[in-house]
Amino acid sequence: MKVLRLSFLVFSSLLLSSGLLRAEELVVAGYKISVQALGEHPGAFRTLRSELQILRAGKKLLELRGGSFVPGTRSVDPAQLKFTKPGTDVNGNGIPDLVVAEYTDGGDCCMTLHVFELGKKFRKLATIDTRFDLEPQFLEIPGSSARGYRTHDYTFGGWGGEGFSVPAPTVYLRFTNDGVVLDVSRMKKAAPSDEVLRERAQVALRALSKIEASHSGQDLPLALINPVLELIYSGNAELLPRFLEWSWPPGRGGRQEFLSAVQRQLQKSPYAKWLATSNLGANQPAI
After folding, report:
1. Contact call for residues 160 and 140 (beta carbons, < 8 A)
2. How confident is the model at residue 86 (pLDDT cuts 50, 70, 90)?
3. What are phi and psi of 248, to 5 degrees?
C-alpha cells in the first residue's frame, strides 16, 4: 500500500524544466516515430502538449495528441532504460515493441504508458495509467521472456479525509500476446490469521471511535480504509465482513453503507473486472 503526498504545481515545474517538451524523431524496426511539441495549454497548471505519430513506408499508422510523449521513457534507472529501449520485446513473442511514456499534469496527472507492437502488423498492446508513479517499474518474470509491471491503483484517491494522502494498493501486471493482465501469482496473498486481523481491526476501531458518527464513506480514516483495500487487492475480500464487524464501534450505524461505497468506487478501477472476485480469478481478458 502506498500513501502519496504531491504538489501538482511543483510537478508541473519539474516537467517544464526537465526538457520533456521537445521534438523527437527515431526509426525502429522500419517504423518512423515522431514527436512534435505543441506548446503549453493555457491554464493554472501550464499543461504540456505534444503529438505522437507512427509511420511506416510513408503511411501514417497512428496520430495521438496529448501530454508530453517520450519514446522509451526517461527513467533514471539503467535497468528500466534497458526494458523500455525502443524495439525491446516486452511480451516475449519475439516481435519488437515500443513503449511511449505520456507525461501530463493538472487534473490528468501524471504518467501513462502506451505500448505498441512493431511487427509485420502494427498494433497497440496496452495502455497503463500509472498516474503518480513517474518512474517506470518493468519487472523480469522468472522463466519467461515476457515482462511484468508494478504500479499502484489510485482509484481511491481522496479517500481517508487526510488531504493529499492517497490510499494506493500495489498492482502487478504481466504482458501477454494480447496485452496486459493482472499477475495473479504476485497479487494473491495468504489470508491473515484471525489474530492478525483482530489486531488491524483494533487499530481501525480506535481511529473510528475518535471521529463523529456523521463521517462516512471516503471521509473515514485510513486506518480503516487501507486494511479493507489490502484484503481486496490480495484476494481475501471474503474476510471483509469479519474485519468490519471487529473494527466497527458498537451501536454505530453505516457499516453496510461504507462497504457499498467501497464496492461502487471499486467499479471505477481499471482492474475492476479482476477485483470483483475475492480470489482474483486468473481467467480474465487482457486490458
Report:
1. no
2. very high
3. -90, 130
pLDDT digits (tens, 9 = 90+) for 93-129: 999 999 999 988 765 578 899 999 999 999 999 999 8
Q: Which amino acid belongs to residue 188?
A: K
Q: Which of these, 148, 85, 149, 82, lies nearest to 111 by C-alpha position?
A: 149
What gap in Å lies between CA 86 and CA 121, rounded to an integer?
17
- Please give the DSSP secondary-structure letter assigned to residue 57: T
Q: What share of the chain is helix, strand, coil (3-state, %, to 5)?
A: 30, 30, 40
CB 258 within 8 A of CB 216: yes
Cell of 76: 533514471
Which candidate, 136, 141, 113, 135, places its Cα nearest to that of 126?
113
Domains of the chain: 2-56+68-134 (2.40.128), 153-287 (no CATH)
188 within 8 A of 280, measured Cβ to Cβ:
yes
C-alpha cell read off for 273: 473486472
For the chain, the farthest-separated pair of C-alpha atoms sits apart, in whole angstroms, at 71
First to last CA, the chain: 22
H helices within 119-278, ranges in order?
184-187, 194-209, 222-233, 240-247, 255-266, 272-275
Cell 525502443, located at residue: 86
What's the pTM value of the predicted model, to 2 decimals? 0.81
